[in-house]
């Protein structure tokens, strides 16, 4: 029987309660698919700051190193926002994990589920046009990590600077990830850049073109980041895979997430070249609704499905979870934020949604 | 009688035909407000490449230097897209003009006009929530112009880099522009940054806070660029003035423009510290519809109004044009793209819209 080990980092806010539902689903997967998914919980984020003195304690990092994948909840909240930037949960834990494990390939799917179109902030005809985008974001380079970064000078001429930087190798590996994904989807990659202004973007475009030659069945086109934010609003159905640098992918993936109107449904994967990955919901820790049992666990559960698919190659189990989620949505077992205001009283709780998904499995 | 001189750079695509309507309106302003607006036309963009061999001929630059303001049409088109980047209309003419005249302050208003809500790609309730945003974008620094920029190294480790850079002085002057604008509007500035990742953004935030102290009547808050692209979709009415760096302003202003669904109505102003400015429509040269007399001249006409207001202090004339535009929209004299598909046969031509605005004046 195949056996895998998972580091479970539930984190802050709604993290723990949605993670509990993901664990239920993984328990069900163990039985149904005859695998062992050993899970060990580790502290991370604000909770780890409070209990261990830092956002990413060394035992947590060690636990992650020993696991086959990290299932991540969410971190951060007002309580830790006044800490110096470098100690804050997002930076100290999330950016450090990305860079420590070289998790360069970030996949952020965003789709509008049939029946949930009215949640989208977009006009009905656009929301109903069949929106299903996968943002492939480079996650360990670009202006997030480029050196030098700093401050110099005096008085009014004092200046701050950051370096946007990409090597051919870094661009090539994320471009390959995008083309591979497109082959399994609708065969189209749209590369997002600002090649009319940035030298980095010109190299980006060059390498995207080179990689495209190895994928004759995938169509490649290019779009400027400013135009991309417009087209996502006007006609999101035109996009299949969007290939983005770190900063542009941050922007594009969040706009795509919002466009669906249902952040609580969106998972994400961050992987390295060895298939090790960190899997987390696209939304945040939502401290305002934490602890009430009303948070949507689906993004966490779909993140677990991505983990089974990408880090464990358990495609059947991943497919089964994804189908069970769709069936749950179709059955109308929905948390409050997915319901119109006048139907909120019929909302399912976090654990009811988890139970229904297990049942549908 | 006051007298002003204007360098008129109509450019490519729909530029010349919409400029003709702006000229009609300025003729009417001369009579009604007893001013002289001397206009001299100069070649720019693709047209200048074809006729003079470069996108910004020296006589054009000289003409601009001698004028009180530049009224700009639009430039570029497929014909010139294969030129080396540095020679292309956008870079060779537009970025050069911005930097030559130190046009650091870019104002891009975006509003959804009552009655035109159905053009917006946003859901009806959002489009009707009273959307009226002014994006204040820094236009002569940041990653567009920061040095060094280049390529180095060999093989797969060859890398490209760009520098994002802002001095205190550069941030302060654009922040002041945003606060001044907010005082004349609804008293709120939202500063857009990525301070959780970029050192430049941290300095940006610091200076925005400093400047805010001099404007106790204006409220300041901060938003990350990724969240900004989400909020513009979800609840654009929350924004009054959005203060942005060059790159973030490029992205935010285009998303705001698209959100209105009527790019043909949106003007822009790019000014320096002396009040000299370049005024141009937010949309592009639209080569696909050029020469057919169907382009909307309103963005060009409102750009002329901004010119009268900011470079000539002719506020009454500017107000009068803006009112005449609203009256024209209300009278239903609309170009085709503002009409539902089944009413396009009743569309007004470019010159009919210009005539109506003159009449309303
Ligand atoms: C928390 C922040 C540093 C992070 C990022 O910008 O990458 C977040 O916005 C994300 O997209 O995961
Ligand atoms: C043409 C291009 C360089 C320009 C920019 O990015 O500034 C354009 O997108 C704009 O916003 O005026």
TrEMBL record, chains A, B:
Q: Which reaction does it catalyse?
A: (2R,3S)-3-isopropylmalate + NAD(+) = 4-methyl-2-oxopentanoate + CO2 + NADH
Q: Which residues bind substrate?
A: 98, 108, 137, 226
Subcellular location per the Swiss-Prot or TrEMBL entry: Cytoplasm
Nucleotide-binding: is it a keyword of this entry? Answer: no
Pathway where it operates: Amino-acid biosynthesis; L-leucine biosynthesis; L-leucine from 3-methyl-2-oxobutanoate: step 3/4
Binding-site positions, Mg(2+): 226, 250, 254
Give all residue intervals belonging to the Isopropylmalate dehydrogenase-like domain.
5-357
Principal cellular location given in the protein's record? cytoplasm
Gene Ontology MF term list: 3-isopropylmalate dehydrogenase activity; magnesium ion binding; NAD binding
Q: What is its EC number?
A: 1.1.1.85
Question: Belongs to which family?
Answer: Belongs to the isocitrate and isopropylmalate dehydrogenases family. LeuB type 1 subfamily.
**Official protein name in the record:** 3-isopropylmalate dehydrogenase
- Tell me what gene encodes this: leuB
